[in-house]
Write a structure and sequence with these properties.
The chain is α+β, with helices and mostly antiparallel strands. The protein contains 14 helices and nine strands. It comes from Finegoldia magna (strain ATCC 29328 / DSM 20472 / WAL 2508).
Length: 341
Amino acid sequence: MEYSNYYMNLPLDLAGSRTKNRFRVELLWGVGKLIDAYKLYDDYTIVFDFKCDIELHRDNGLDFYQVKTINRGNHSSKTLTKRKGNSRSILGTLYALYNPNHNIKLAVVCNKHLKIDSKEDLRKEVCLGELDKTVIDFIEDKLQEELKLSEVILDNVFYVCESMDLTNPHYALLGKLIEAFQEIKNEEPNNPNALFRLVSDTAQKKASYEMAITNYNDVLELKGISKNEFNKMLESHRKKSITGIEQVKDYIKTLFPSERRLYNQALTNLLEIDQSHELNVLKISIFEYIEGNIDKIKNENDLFNILNNVFDSEFPIEYTKYMKKVFYLMVFYLYTEGGDI
């Protein structure tokens, strides 16, 4: 990418010590950004805790996010530019990453609204370059002094307010992940908690990598999660991969042509029928029965012989003999492939 040289010469994020919970809040906010960006960009990577808290790398630009949560009060132009000793201010740390020759967005992310002249600005995203001139002049003067710059441009500097659960940040993100999965894959994830652990643990691993990195592509690989990598995580938790349908199709291929047609028709009919609550209950009962009697089931013929006597009468009247058999096969393969209900 055209900005790789500029990026690699930026200072590393040398933030001071953070509590375990604050680090987790930052991390999970980054995962939330990973989800949001999926619908906006064809290709991107979220980088965790390298040059900035959270970074969005896209084809035509870079977004840097400093996550600064507070328990009480609000941030203002004064708190954002305040320095402790020789350390950088919040905006100073962020603006040190800016380069007017590249498409760069800088943003402070907080759980509280920005307060200007004792009044909260209730907008979700505030461009600092659009504030009153007196406020702009104040911020520019502070940054020029801190960073020894002759000019400061605030048109690409933002204050983002997002509600965050600082105590249990994972609860809201789990819901967001499930909602995004449904929108992207048109189904619910097979195991939402396992998917959440996979994504958050991967982000934790990326953020915690501390070995020296001198190549831009290595930064993306070792410190970031790409859209493609995120999509693979989603794919690994699709229900369709363990519904048993593919295994049923493979079984049908082994049958004689006359039976093959009857089974394929039954499978098509089953997939077109909306599953009622009663059928879902029956599916659970069959799954549990298979689980408790798996030692007696050596093959598909054993499956039919055992289940026919127990469950055939439980199906709706419109279910044919072959539809029942295919239903048994789907549940059986769901069990043997390691799936769950």
